[in-house]
């Protein structure tokens, strides 16, 4: 039976507005100027610790472990309290996931976002039940692009082809390191031209994904 594993941020959901809001609530606590949404989008992809590192760098702050922990913990408090209000599914995602599930595909998630808010976001859209496995950025001691999280997600499935779907440089590198076919969603948070990233398929709308996955599973 074929399985498909998805990234979350920038792939299934546009979560940047909620991340942006939580970061700016964190900064407002110390009367610091807010970040712009494009800035925050450029920081997303490598997990919360790196997100906070990039925030500190953008503000000209020196690397400091205590300061990093303080910002990290306060950000997570705000984000965990409200991770889904401003987050939206990309067009066609729900129909695609439900169609794949009805057709017998096994579905998983592998994201650098912590598992708690990842599950809450999927649940807020009524989609969590479709996912046989959810691997978050805090599920293992390493994060993507290390292939271990993706391999852990793939190990949850019975024998059969396993494919990965993501939107970013991190996802492309993770799939390549794990040796899995990769379908690149072009409308997410990627900064590099799509053709410069390793991939086996490209798509800009989820209506096109089921047919692409069927082709990849047969190849």
Automatic annotation (TrEMBL):
Catalytic EC class: hydrolase
Keyword hit for Metal-binding: yes
Reaction catalysis annotation: 2-phosphoglycolate + H2O = glycolate + phosphate
One GO process term, biological-process aspect: glycolate biosynthetic process
Cofactor: Mg(2+)
Transcription regulation is among the record's keywords: no
Involved pathway(s): Organic acid metabolism; glycolate biosynthesis; glycolate from 2-phosphoglycolate: step 1/1
Binding site for Mg(2+): 7, 9, 167
Pfam family, one: HAD_2
The protein's role, per its UniProt record: Specifically catalyzes the dephosphorylation of 2-phosphoglycolate. Is involved in the dissimilation of the intracellular 2-phosphoglycolate formed during the DNA repair of 3'-phosphoglycolate ends, a major class of DNA lesions induced by oxidative stress.
Family: Belongs to the HAD-like hydrolase superfamily. CbbY/CbbZ/Gph/YieH family.
Name listed for the protein in its UniProt record: Phosphoglycolate phosphatase
Species, as recorded: Cereibacter changlensis JA139
Organism classification: Bacteria, Pseudomonadati, Pseudomonadota, Alphaproteobacteria, Rhodobacterales
């Amino acid at each position: 039976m074929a399985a498909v594993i998805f990234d979350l941020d920038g792939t299934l959901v546009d979560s940047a507005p909620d991340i942006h809001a939580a970061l700016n609530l964190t900064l407002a606590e110390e009367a610091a100027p807010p970040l712009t949404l494009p800035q925050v989008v450029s920081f997303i992809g490598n997990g919360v610790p790196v997100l906070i590192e990039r925030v500190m760098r953008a503000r000209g702050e020196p690397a400091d472990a205590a300061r990093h922990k303080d910002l990290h913990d306060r950000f997570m408090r705000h984000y965990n309290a409200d991770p889904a209000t401003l987050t939206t599914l990309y067009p066609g995602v729900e129909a695609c996931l439900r169609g794949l599930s009805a057709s017998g595909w096994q579905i998983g998630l592998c994201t650098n976002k912590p598992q708690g808010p990842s599950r809450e976001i999927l649940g807020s859209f009524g989609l969590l039940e479709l996912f046989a496995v959810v691997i978050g950025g805090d599920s293992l001691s390493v994060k993507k692009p290390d292939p271990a999280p993706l391999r852990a997600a793939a190990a949850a499935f019975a024998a059969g082809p396993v494919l990965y779907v993501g939107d970013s440089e991190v996802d492309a590198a993770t799939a390549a390191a794990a040796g899995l076919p990769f379908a690149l969603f072009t409308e997410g948070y990627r900064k590099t031209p799509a053709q410069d990233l390793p991939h086996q398929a490209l798509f800009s709308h989820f209506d096109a994904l089921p047919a692409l996955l069927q082709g990849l599973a047969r190849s």
